[in-house]
């Protein structure tokens, strides 16, 4: 499954050009089951699209994958705001998730 995750991340980085990709959920902090989905948090700046539009773009990009995916797309400023108010969900992702890509 690790190779599947890396292939997906490589595609996201190459085609979607995010600022950051973080793995969370059972693949990051537990022992995934055979049918566990891959949970990814993808951060991308885009002045012309909202997160819903970016999510649709990403779903189309990854439509041919044969593994279950759950991908959350946020703009970096949205995540910063939610972390400042101690959003438990995003705080857990940032503390316990695995950073798979960060734009340099």
UniProtKB/TrEMBL annotation:
InterPro entries: NT_sf, Polbeta, Type_VII_TA_antitoxin. It comes from the Bacteria. Transmembrane segments: none annotated. Residues 6-103 form the Polymerase beta nucleotidyltransferase domain. Pfam families: Polbeta. This is Polymerase beta nucleotidyltransferase domain-containing protein.
């Amino acid at each position: 499954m690790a190779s599947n995750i890396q292939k997906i991340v490589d595609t996201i980085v190459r085609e979607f050009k995010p600022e950051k990709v973080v793995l969370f959920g059972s693949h990051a902090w537990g022992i995934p089951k055979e049918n566990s989905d891959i949970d990814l948090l993808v951060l991308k700046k885009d002045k012309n699209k909202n997160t819903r539009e970016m999510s649709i773009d990403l779903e189309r990009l990854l439509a041919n994958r044969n593994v279950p995916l759950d991908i959350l797309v946020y703009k970096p400023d949205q995540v910063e705001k939610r972390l400042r108010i101690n959003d438990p969900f995003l705080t857990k992702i940032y503390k316990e998730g695995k950073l798979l890509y960060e734009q340099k």
